[in-house]
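tool=predict chain=A
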Amino acid sequence: MKMDKRQFSASKARFICLGVVVLFVSISSAVQAGQNVTLGWNAETNVAGYVLYYGTNSGSYTSNYTYRIDAGTNLSATATNLQPGQNYYFAVTAYNSARAESAPSTPIAYLVTGILTMAPPSKTTPLTIKFPVAPGHTYIVQGSTDLKKWTNLWSMGTASSNAWVSYQITNTKSFKNRFYRLSMSP
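tool=predict ok
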């Protein structure tokens, strides 16, 4: 079926209203150099395919995104090798049989988990541990003096958004050596 410009414009409007509706996050339990995220969207009528745009710069135009994945008629695509601690922005377009693309969907921001940063204590501030969290996961900061026995120092309930979280450790002077790790559960 051939789609004229008016029909494709109507399809674009429906597509933009629906936007990207599902975000599935593939997070490895071990810290990796790059991680993956899979995004999915609702099907549209009179569409020949979809394109996923993403990058570290947000913008309303697809030229602001570094990467482009032509998903064809698939309703999902996977962005690979995302760097922990980095913000990425995703937008989807639909295209017709002439390969004319719709305006991009509303961008979705995603902060890649899998990195732990520490700021040393000073005279006025305690040791600060900072890390990004993903929705649907719980996190526990643990400490050890021998790397064998770990003690839970702080726990966070299930995260409801993708954001950076900070935890301050005030009793660092009572330990000659102390190691820290972050535990995440689904």
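Residues 66 and 117 are 26 Å apart (CA to CA). The radius of gyration is 21 Å.
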